[in-house]
């Protein structure tokens, strides 16, 4: 019994040892991981389930099959992922291209919209009006409907509403219920519009140099008015340069004793142009400066006195009264309002207020070289009933251009 028990016990021990051998030791496991490039848990489990010799025999065939199966399984798992990623990438690329195309289209449309300014609307007006007249006589109702397009274009060009009403009235009188030859429809419309706009400007042309030369009792006195920043002092310097080049002797009166550095600015221009300047201290009486300049000009036989005044907002009643005092004391032969062409209807409003205060004789529009609309020139002359004398077209002293309607027509797209 003991032997049997001993044998049985011995067999149990052998089985335990074999069972232990079946377990993969850490060293073996590490070796396998190293050799097989860290096989997956499924591959290691396969090794544990096989017997010693069977494992060795099975390795080339069975494990090879298993490896192939696992690789295929991995490929199947990876393939959808890869395909999905490719699909997402392709979709993202398509979406990116579509977005770029959409942005390009938006930019193009925006650019086209920006380009379609007053000129395009005027063309639309001319085209519709021409079509209406070409088919039959234009009635008043049809004209009013079509004119709304031109009205918008003129408003965008800074033309005052009062002026637009005048243009509308002129066109209606010339075009409504009028027989027009079919081959001259558009030409007739444009001609009517040009004639209407040209009639808005005052016919009185002012030649400053000629006026100075003609005056028997010297000096000829010119006072300048306008708000700060409108180019008034620079315009005075340009006039001084022009008069000097015409052989006339000029003196400047620094009657702007209010704005900081105004006297120094006028002094600099006087030095550059080569003319005399009369000046007092800041905050002194502007009218007294003008009086002294006129007195000096008389004593020295000077031909002309140009009076600079303080730039001020047209809404300041007290400062506007100061201008009236300068006018009463100096009794100028010519009063000139200087306004910025690019400010549009603001320029018109300023001109109206200064005209009411000092009743100026003419207008200089500065910065006309950068005015792409032209509406201020059309409006300011018509509303104040005063002529435009010069356009300022640059920063140099020679950049002063006599008024010409062709400049305005060009800015309005009617040249």
Describe this structure in words.
This protein has 16 helices and eight strands. The protein has three domains: 20-95; 118-198, Four Helix Bundle (Hemerythrin (Met), subunit A), CATH 1.20.120.140; 208-411, P-loop containing nucleotide triphosphate hydrolases (Rossmann fold), CATH 3.40.50.300. The protein has helices at 2-22, 26-35, 41-49, 52-115, 118-135, 140-156, 161-175, 185-198, 208-214, 232-245, 262-273, 286-300, 317-330, 345-358, 375-384, 405-411, and strands at residues 220-225, 250-255, 276-278, 304-309, 334-340, 362-366, 388-392, 400-402. Helix 7 (161-175) crosses helix 8 (185-198). It has an eight-stranded mixed beta sheet, sandwiched between helices. The N and C termini lie far apart (134 Å). The chain has 415 residues and is of the alpha/beta class. It is elongated and about 70 Å long. Strand 6, helix 15 and strand 7 (388-392) form a beta-alpha-beta unit.
> Which structural class do you get from the secondary structure elements?
alpha/beta
Radius of gyration using CA atoms only: 46 Å
At the fourth level of CATH, the homologous superfamily of the largest domain is P-loop containing nucleotide triphosphate hydrolases
Structural shape: elongated
CATH topology grouping of the largest domain: Rossmann fold
Number of strands: 8
In the CATH classification, which architecture of the largest domain applies?
A: 3-Layer(aba) Sandwich
| Main pleated sheet | 8 strands, mixed
According to CATH, what is the class of the largest domain?
Alpha Beta
**Count of runs of 4 or more consecutive helical residues:** 16
Q: N-to-C terminal Cα separation, in Å?
A: 134 Å
Main sheet: which strands, in order across?
A: 3-2-4-1-5-6-7-8
Kindly estimate the percentage of residues that lie in beta strands according to DSSP.
5-15%
Mean pLDDT: 77
Poorly predicted runs of 5 or more residues? 1-7, 19-63, 109-118
Domain unit count = 3
Helix fraction bin? 55-70%
N-to-C order of helices and strands? HHHHHHHHHEHEHEHEHEHEHEEH
């Amino acid at each position: 019994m003991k032997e049997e028990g001993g044998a049985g016990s011995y067999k149990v021990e052998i089985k335990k040892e074999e069972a232990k051998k079946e377990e993969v030791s850490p060293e073996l496991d590490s070796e396998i991981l190293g050799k097989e490039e860290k096989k997956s848990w499924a591959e290691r489990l396969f090794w544990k389930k096989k017997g010693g010799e069977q494992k060795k025999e099975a390795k080339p065939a069975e494990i090879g099959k298993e490896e192939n199966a696992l690789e295929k399984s991995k490929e199947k798992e990876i393939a959808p992922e890869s395909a999905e990623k490719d699909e997402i990438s392709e979709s993202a690329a398509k979406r990116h291209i579509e977005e770029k195309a959409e942005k390009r289209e938006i930019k193009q449309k925006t650019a086209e919209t920006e380009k379609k300014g007053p000129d395009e609307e005027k063309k639309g007006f001319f085209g519709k009006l021409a079509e209406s007249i070409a088919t039959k006589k234009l009635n008043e109702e049809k004209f009013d409907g079509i004119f709304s397009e031109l009205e918008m274009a003129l408003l965008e060009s800074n033309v005052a509403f009062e002026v637009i009403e005048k243009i509308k009235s002129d066109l209606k009188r010339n075009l409504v219920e009028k027989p027009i030859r079919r081959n001259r429809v558009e030409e007739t419309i444009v001609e009517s519009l040009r004639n209407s706009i040209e009639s808005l400007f005052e016919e009185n042309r002012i030649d400053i140099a000629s006026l100075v030369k003609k005056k028997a009792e010297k000096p000829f006195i010119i006072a300048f008015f306008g708000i700060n920043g409108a180019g008034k002092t620079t315009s005075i310097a340009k006039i001084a340069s022009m008069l000097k080049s015409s052989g006339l002797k000029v003196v400047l009166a620094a009657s702007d004793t209010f704005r900081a550095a105004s006297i120094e600015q006028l002094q600099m221009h006087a030095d550059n142009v080569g003319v005399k300047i009369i000046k007092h201290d800041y905050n002194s009486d502007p009218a007294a400066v003008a009086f002294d300049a006129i007195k000096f000009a008389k004593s020295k036989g000077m031909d002309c006195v140009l009076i600079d005044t303080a730039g001020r907002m047209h809404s300041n009643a007290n400062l506007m009264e100061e201008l009236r005092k300068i006018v009463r004391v100096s009794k100028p032969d010519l009063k000139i309002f200087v306004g910025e062409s690019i400010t549009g209807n603001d320029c018109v409003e300023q001109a109206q207020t200064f005209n009411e205060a000092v009743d100026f004789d003419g207008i200089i529009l500065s910065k006309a070289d950068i005015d792409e609309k032209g509406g201020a020139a059309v409006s300011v002359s018509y509303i104040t009933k005063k002529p435009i004398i010069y356009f300022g077209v640059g920063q140099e002293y020679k950049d002063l251009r006599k008024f010409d309607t062709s400049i305005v027509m060009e800015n309005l797209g009617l040249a």
